[in-house]
Amino acid sequence: MLPSSVSRHDSNRSRRDPTAPARHIDPLLMLSVAALSIVGIIAVYSATRGPGPTYSSSYLFKQTAFVGIGAGAFVIFSIVDYRKLHDWAWAFYGLTTLMLVLVISPLGSQSKGAQAWFALGPFQLQPAEFAKLSLIGALGFLLSEFRGDIDVRRLFSLLGVAGLPMILILVQPDLGLVLILTAIALAMLLVGGLPTKFIVVLTLVGLIGIFGALNSPVLKEYQINRLTAFANPEDKSNPAVYNIDQSQQAIATGGVTGEGLFNGPQTKLGFVPEQQTDFIFTAVAEQFGFVGAAIVLLLYGLLCYRIWRIAQIAKDSFGSYVCIGVLAMFAFSIFENVGMAMGIMPVTGIPLLLLSAGGSSTVTALAALGLVMSVHARRFQ
Amino acid sequence: MDTASPRTRMSLVGVVVIGCFMALFARLWYLQVMEAPRLQVQAIANRTRVVAVEAPRGRILDVNGKVLVDNRTSLAVTIDRAAFKKLPDQADLVNRLADVLTRYGTPTKVSSLEKRYADVQFNDLYPVPVATDVSEEVQWYLAEHADDFPTVGVERRSTRVYPYGAAAGNVLGYVGRITAEKLKVAEPGIDPDSGAVKSYQSDSTIGLAGVESTYEKDLRGTPGVEMIEVDSKNRPVGTSAYQAPKPGTDIQLHIDIDVQMRAEQSLQDKLLRLRGTNQRDGTLRNATAGSVVVMDPQTGGVVALATYPTYDPREFVNGISQERYDQLTDVDGVSALIDRSISGQYAPGSTFKLVTATAALSNGLITGGTSYNDQGVYTVGNPAQEFTNAGSVRNGTISLPTALTISSDVYFYWLGDRMDGSKLIQDTAAAYGFDKRTGIDLPNESSGYVLTPEEKKALKDKYPDSYSDGTWYTGDNVQLAVGQNVIVVTPLQLARAYAAFANGGTLYTPHVVWRLLRPKNSEVDPGGVISVIEPVVTGTVELPPDVRDPIVAGLSRVTTGLGTGSSAFIGFDQQAFPVVGKTGTAQVEGKADTSLFASYGPGLFPRYAVTAVMEESGFGAEASGEVVRHVYEILAGQTITDAAPASSGSSD
C-alpha cells in the first residue's frame, strides 16, 4: 500500500500520480449506471405516453431532469472523498431524521395513503429515500469504530440507530422502504462483524415480529391483500391479484424478442397499474422481450458485482461497509421489485432503482453509486 | 465465525445476491418463454372486446320488383353506461340531452331517456341507444359540444323504410328490438353462402309480425364482427379485426302492390260508407272490419291480402309506445293488429253452397238437372222446425244451377236434409281445405271449424256451460248446407276453396312469398335467385264434368242478369273478363249480417280467385260484391270506379 502522505491537493503532481482518484474510475460501473439510467428514461416514457394519438411527454422530461440531477449528485459524490461522509455521518443522519419527523407533521403531504412527501412546487421530495443513504453513513461510522468488536450494548446502539428512521417511516407508512432499510442494516451488521449468536437472536426476533404484524391491526387492508394475493393468486376477487395478473401478462406478451418500443399493447393501453414506478420492469419486458429484460438484469448484475468488488478492495473498513450498504440497497430493491412483477415476491411499493420514475429515489441511487465510485477511486489514497 | 473475516461474510452476501439473480432469470424465462403462449391469450382476451355489428335486413319486393320495404341509415344517440355511471352530474346531463333532442326535432322526455338508459337488457359493454332516428342537426350539435356531453355518442344504424307507407302492413309485418325472452329461444338463421350463424345480440332487431317474422331467418343479415381493442378503463382505442356485416336475403312476394292498395282502398271506402246505415231488416250496419284475399288459382300465390282496420308498420320503426299500441288493439272496438284475412273466422253463408253442391253431385244425390219446388220455406223434424229463404221468396221449381244463381236456400236445405246422417258435407268441406289451417307463410292463422255430430257432442261434454245441447239435429245439417251455425271459415280458406274449384280441383298451400333473392349489392350474383318457393299441393277435390259443369253454370250467372251479385257488376265488361262467384250473407246473432263474396275469373281460364268478407255490412252483393268488383277492375284492366253509396240491398 502506498503512503498516504501524498498531497491530494497538488493538481500539478496528480496528473502523474498513479494513485490519483481520476485514474481509478471503474469503467464497468460507469457503463452499467449510464445504460440503466437511459433505459429507465425510455421505459418511463413508454409507460406514460398514453395510447395516442396525442402523447404525453411530461414524465419523459421529469425523469430526464431527475437523471440529470442524479448525474450531478453522482459526480459530486465521486469527486468528494467518501471519508467526508464519515465525518459528516451524524449531521446527515440528524438532518434526515428531522425531515422524517417533519414529514409526518402537518408540513408533509399525503399521496396514495402515505404521509411521505414534501410538496415543492411541481416536485415532491421523499425524505425516506435519503434516509437510506444516511443510515448507510451512520452504520458505516459505528461499525468502523467498533472494528468488529460488538457486544450487547453496541448492538443496541446499532439497532437504535437503524430503528429510529424505520419507526418514523412506518408511521407514514411505507413498508417497502422499511424493508430496504432492514436489508441494508442486516447486510452491514453481518459484514461489520456481528457475532453469530446475535444474528440468530435477531433472526428469531424478526420472524416473531413479522408473525405478530400479520396478526395485528398494524397492517392496512391493502397490505394484507397484497400478502394474501401472493399466497393465493387464484382469488380473482382480491384487487392485488389483478395487479399481479396484469403484470405477468404484460411480461409474457413480450415473449422472446419483445413487441418493440411503443408497441407493447398492455403497456400502451395502461393495463399494468403503477407501471412507471413499481411495475416499470413490465414495460421493459413487454417491449424488449426476454432478450431486453435479461440484458437489463445482467446490467444490474454487473452493477452489483462491481459494488461487491469495490467493497472488497476498499482502502478502509468504512468504505467497505458503505459499499455493502449500497449493495444491499440495490440487490434487495431489484429482487423485491422484479420478483413482485413476476409473481415470486409479494407486492410492496419499492422502486426499481434507476429504472422507476421518481426524483428522490433516482437521485439517492445515483448519489449512492457516486459514493461507491469515490471508494473505488480512492482505494490507493 | 465471530471472528470470521469480513471477506468471508462479504462472500456470503455475494452468494445470496447471486441466488436472487438466478431466481429472477429463471422466473423471467418461465414467464416469457414457457408460459408466454397461455398468458398472451389471457392478455389478448383482456384487452379485446368482440362486438357484433348488426347487418341491414333483406329488402321485401312485390311481384313486379317494386320495393315495399327498404333500409335507410338512421342516427341513434347512445350513452356509454359504464362511463356514465361515474359521472358526478348525471341528471343534469340527461336534462340537457333531452333539451337538445327536443330542440332539433325529436321531442324527448327526460323519463324516456332514463327508462331506456336503465333497460337491463342492454349490455354495459355497448353504448345504450337512448334516442333513435334523430336528426342530423342533433349529430352536429353533439359533435360541436362534445365536451358538454361526456359518454354521449351518435351511432349510425340501419332502419326499415316503407316506400308504400301503410300498404300491405299486415303482410309485411314489422320489426322491433328482440326481447329478453326471445333472445333466449330465438333460433338464428344461417348465411346461405358462408354458413355463418346469424346470431342475436341484446339489441338486435327481429321480425315481429308478417313476413318479417316468418322469413326472419332469411331477412336477417349476417352480423359483422368487430374486435375492439380497449384500454384498461374499457375505452375503445382501435379495431384489431373487422368483418363487415352482410345484408340479409331479399324476398320477393306474390303480392302485387297495386292490386293490394286497390283492395285496401276499396275495402276501407266501402266499410266507411256502410257504417251507420241500416240493412233491410233495420239492423244497424257497424261495418267495423273486413278483408279481401286475391289468389292465383294456378300456384297458390297470394296477390293481395287486405284487412281493415290495419296498422302502419312505420309506427313500429322506432319502437311503439304502449299507449299507441293499446289504441291499435281497439279501433272502433276491433283490433288493428289482427289480420282478418287469415285469422278472422266467419260463417260462410251461401258461399258454402259450392261445397254442398259438390257433395250432393259427387255422391249421386242429384244431377245437374234434378229439380225441386222451392216454396220459400223448408220444414224438418219433430217438433217441426221451419227454415226460410231470405225474405221468404218463393222460387218455384228450380234445378241446381238456378239455385246457385239466385241463391235458393230452400233447395240447399233440402240437400242438407237428404245428407243428414252422413258426413258427406263435412268430408267435402275437408277436401276443399276447410277445418284446418292452410299453412300460409304468415303467423297467427286460424283453422276455422266444420262440426260433425261427434264434435258437437264432444264440445258439449267439454264445455257444458257454453253448449246447451250436444245432440246433432237434422236442423244442424240443414243449416250446415247453407254455411250457417255449425261452421266458421277464414277468408283465406274460402278463397282457396274457390281457387281449387277454378283450377279443376287442386288445393295449393297459399304463399305470399314467391322467391328469395341475393342482395342487390351482393359480391356474387347480385340480385340473383337463391330459391323459389314452389307451389305445394295439399289435396285435391274430385271434380268430374258432371259435378263441375252444373256448378260452373250456376256460379257464372251470379254476376249477371238475375244473379244475386249482378248489381255489383253493372258496367263491368264480363265479355272480356267473366267473373264466376257466389254471394253470401251470414247471419250473426244480434248484429248486421256478414257480407261475403267468393269468386274467380276470368271464367274459362281463371287467373285470380278473389274473396271479400265484411263484418256487420249486410248482403253479399251490396258490400263484398262491390269490393270484389273493384279489385277485378284493376286485375282485368278495366275502368276504375268508386265505391257506391250504401243502399238497403235487394237480395242475397
From TrEMBL, chain A:
State if ATP-binding is listed as a keyword. Answer: no
The record's principal subcellular location, in a coarse class, is membrane
Pfam families membership: FTSW_RODA_SPOVE
Please state what the protein is called.
Unannotated protein
List keywords of the entry alphabetically: Cell membrane, Cell shape, Cell wall biogenesis/degradation, Glycosyltransferase, Membrane, Peptidoglycan synthesis, Transferase, Transmembrane, Transmembrane helix
PROSITE patterns under this entry? FTSW_RODA_SPOVE (PS00428)
Q: Which GO terms describe its cellular component?
A: cell division site; plasma membrane
Q: Region (Disordered) spans which residues?
A: 1-21
What InterPro entries has UniProt attached to this entry?
Answer: Cell_cycle_FtsW-rel_CS, FtsW/RodA, RodA/MrdB
The GO biological-process annotations, alphabetized, read as:
cell division; cell wall organization; peptidoglycan biosynthetic process; regulation of cell shape
Q: Which GO terms describe its molecular function?
A: glycosyltransferase activity; lipid-linked peptidoglycan transporter activity
What compartments host this protein? Membrane
Could you list the residue ranges that cross the membrane? 28-47, 59-80, 87-105, 155-171, 177-194, 199-218, 288-308, 320-344, 350-372
Native organism taxonomy? unclassified sequences, metagenomes, ecological metagenomes
Here the segments flagged for biased composition (Basic and acidic residues) are 7-21
Membrane topology, as annotated: Multi-pass membrane protein
Automatic annotation (TrEMBL), chain B:
An annotated GO BP: regulation of cell shape
Q: Which GO terms describe its molecular function?
A: penicillin binding; peptidoglycan L,D-transpeptidase activity; serine-type D-Ala-D-Ala carboxypeptidase activity
Q: Topologically, how does it sit relative to the membrane?
A: Single-pass membrane protein
Task: Tell me the ranges covered by the Penicillin-binding protein dimerisation domain, including all copies.
Answer: 53-239
Pfam families in UniProt: PBP_dimer (PF03717), Transpeptidase (PF00905)
Q: Which stretches are transmembrane? A: 12-30
Keyword annotations for this protein? Cell inner membrane, Cell membrane, Cell shape, Cell wall biogenesis/degradation, Hydrolase, Membrane, Peptidoglycan synthesis, Protease, Transmembrane, Transmembrane helix
Compartment(s)? Cell membrane; Membrane
One GO term describing the cellular component: plasma membrane
Domain Penicillin-binding protein transpeptidase, first and last residues per copy: 290-632
- NCBIfam families given in the database record: pbp2_mrdA
What is the protein named? Unannotated protein
Q: Which organism is it from?
A: freshwater metagenome
Ranked from the top, the taxonomy reads: unclassified sequences, metagenomes, ecological metagenomes
